[in-house]
Amino acid sequence: MAEAHQAVAFQFTITPEGIDLQLSYQALNQIYLSGVRSWKKRFSRLRNSVIKGVYPASPSSWLFVVIAILATMYMRSDPSMGLIKMIQQHLPLSTSLLGPTQGQTMLSALVFSTLLWLSLILALRFCLKLLLSYHQWMFEQHGRVSNTTKVWVTLLRLLSSRKPLLYSYQTSLPHLPVPPIKDTVSRYLKSARPLLTDPEFKRMTELADRFESNLGNRLQRYLKLKALWATNYVSDWWEEYIYLRGRGPIMVNSNYYGMDFLYVTPTPIQAARAGNTITALLLYRRKVNREELKPVRLRCVCVCVSLFHVRMFNTTRTPGVETDVLQHWQDSEFVAVYHKGRFFRLWVYTAGRLLSPREIEHQIQRILDDLSPPQPGEEKLGALTAGERVPWFHTREQHFSSGINKRSLDSIERAAFFVTLDDEEQGMSGEDPAGNLDRYAKSLLHGKCYDRWFDKSFSIVIYKNGKSGLNAEHSWADAPTVAHLWEYTLATDAFQLGYTEDGHCKGDVDRSLPSPQRLAWDIPSEVPVAQALADDVDCHVFPFREFGKGRIKKLRVSPDAFIQIGLQLAYFRDRGGFCLTYEASMTRLFREGRTETVRSCSNESCAFVRAEDQCRRLFKLASERHQNLYRLAMTGDGIDRHLFCLYVVSKYLGVESPFLKEVLSEPWRLSTSQTPVQQMELFDLKNHPDFISLGGGFGPVADDGYGVSYIIVGEDMINFHVSSKHSCGETVSTPSDAFIRV
């Protein structure tokens, strides 16, 4: 009850002598500090809105324009060509310290200067948007840059010379265009050719022709209308229909994971690692809120970062009957913590300041030292977020809509993020490093199926031996966004915050801090655990050290194309054929862009795989074809998102398309993704070469397929994450001889 008493600012009693007020100055001080912090945030947001609203100009440029106009007028010249006099005639100003006429002239000049300044800003923003709409630079060969691209780079650098905030470029990014339907259908048929026999391809061509000449044009008109109205014609439908409307478990099927450093663990003390990790995440949130992070760039071009602030923190996916909903809260001053079947609420701010890493470590240690047993039904409560969505919705409505259960559930869902203090040890060390890495990956992907909160935007896992990792919900953002967060967290933890010689966090401790709060529950029965789904997953992490992108680039081949063609060769040798291959590509060159599919299995890659002779020439052709497919996907000319949106329109119109139905039902037996390294400047690999990340992975998309994620680390290493299902007798994640030979 101590927390309840502290929450009351004052008490009063009525006596014969009057009203006796008993003020709690500590509580009033907390209210005051909380208000000050809130107003500081509002002021910061307002200031940033002004700065990014006038970008690429600066607010101070207004004064320059005013001075220039007044100086020109002082020289008895009219730079406005009569507009200042016209404005002066409509000003109802009669008196002024400078005299009626002079005062009106000065005010008219200020009005004209402001309008001129705003016009210049709009012109600069329009020019910046035109420059960011130019994508031909992506299709030019390395070392053969056209004069047009050289001029474009110069102009872009001139307009971007002023230091931008995180979101300064957002409104200048172009909208995602709708590709011509003829081009999309043609590219689809080309991608499908190596997977179909001659009769099958002839039949698919006839279906495509009928669709293009009849229903396709009608659907295309609706899609173009949406593109004119919406910021991005794909992203909202993709989020809703691909993610939020899925009624199956999101554990394994949707959520993905990120791993710790491969070779080192900064500290073996679990509470200390949790203290620094939580602090680093909250510092990242502060930088996002203040827009202090650098805009994310692809070479010299900034990409969309709209997902960074919208739902990264304080966000939870809540279940529904037909569709889930992403709930986001403006701010949260606590995190939810799980340890040995108990849930805690840990406040990370006090008196308006963020707790020090040492104080958070102290609070985490209190949780670790708490020996109280779980309440009935509490230990496996997280399994509700791991299973089917509809039963979770009905259970939520029945048992978590009011009372103590609702208050405790709100504490988890409103938390900045979720933290699991795992009672197991993970990592590569031990007698079986390869097997240990595989178990580490499986643990991050699903854990015990009840010791993660899979609905949270992301959950942090801190193991008993100090190893860490995360599990991220997929609907709110894609892996590059979470990877950016995780890169910052690992680098800040190891290189900025650091540890004392005995492995503890740095900083002082206020030992008067109230203990973390146990969440109370009244749960009538145990929650069923989706253990079968987790047991079916076969994960393998494969650090490849023979060579990396350094040697690949010497061959003048894209590292990504090299890996993708290698995967085609490995799959062919493993399964004796080819399959539809998914590779995720970003479309963040456009506003609110997310991903597009690179259909990596092409005529050229299949020709290389089948060839016995002339392999080098065919490999070159296959890699060039793959790079072109990747560039088309990034610049809005991909296949699958366009076809997906056409299919959604057909469903709204209540019409059937055999072509679209067949295309969208094709299984992705090889689903691949590269985890980009975006902030190498944060890692001092020269002095600390062992501090390299393992990247992350995901579950297989098809029951009889593979999920392959890879990260290209430095010049000499590539880390692979391979997943499949034990229930399929034809797939196995551990490397076969075919893969090793590749």
UniProtKB/TrEMBL annotation:
It comes from Cyclopterus lumpus. GO terms for cellular component: mitochondrial outer membrane. Keywords: Acyltransferase, Fatty acid metabolism, Lipid metabolism, Membrane, Mitochondrion, Transferase, Transmembrane, Transmembrane helix, Transport. The chain crosses the membrane at residues 50-75. Pathway: Lipid metabolism; fatty acid beta-oxidation. Residues 176-731 form the Choline/carnitine acyltransferase domain. This is carnitine O-palmitoyltransferase. GO terms for molecular function: carnitine O-palmitoyltransferase activity. Residues 1-47 form the Carnitine O-palmitoyltransferase N-terminal domain. The gene is cpt1cb. Belongs to the carnitine/choline acetyltransferase family.
